[in-house]
Fold this protein.
Amino acid sequence: MNETRRDRDAEGRARNARPRDGLGRPLPYGAPGVERQPEGVVRTPAETLAEAQRLLDAGMPFHAHEVFEDAWKSGPEDERELWRGLAQLAVGLTHSARGNTAGGARLLRRGAGALAPFAGSEPYGIEVAGLSHWARELAARVESGPTVDAAAEAPRLRG
C-alpha cells in the first residue's frame, strides 16, 4: 500500500508545512521562508487595514490577501464584498509579481469591480476610487509588460 503522508496543523487539518516566500510560493522543506499569516484572526477594520498595508509595503501581497480573507469571512455580511474585493486586488498583485500576467490582470479587474458598489463612500477611510483606478491601470500594464515588483507597486489603501 502506498501511503501519502500529509502535513497537518495543530488542529489536524491538512496544511502544507513547506516554507513560503513573500509571494506565497512554496519553498523546499528546510529552506528559510517568511512567517505565514495566522488564519482565522478576527481584527477590527483598522487593524486589518494596518496589517494588510504593512504586508503590501513589504512586497508580500499574498500574505495581505490572507488578512483580507479573515475580514471577509468574519465581518458583517454587508461588508463581505469590500473585503473580498481587497483580497482579489492583493491576489492580483501576487500573480502579477509572479509573472502570471493574464491571471493577475483578471483578478485586479475583478477586485476593482467588487469594490465598485463602495465608490464614493470610502468605508474605513479606504480610497475605493483610487484603488480601483490603480487596479485597472496595473492590469493594463501587466498584460503588456514585464513582471512587476510587488513592493514597488503596493497600493495605498487609505489616504
In short: The chain has a mean pLDDT of 90. The longest helix spans residues 80-98. The radius of gyration is 16 Å.
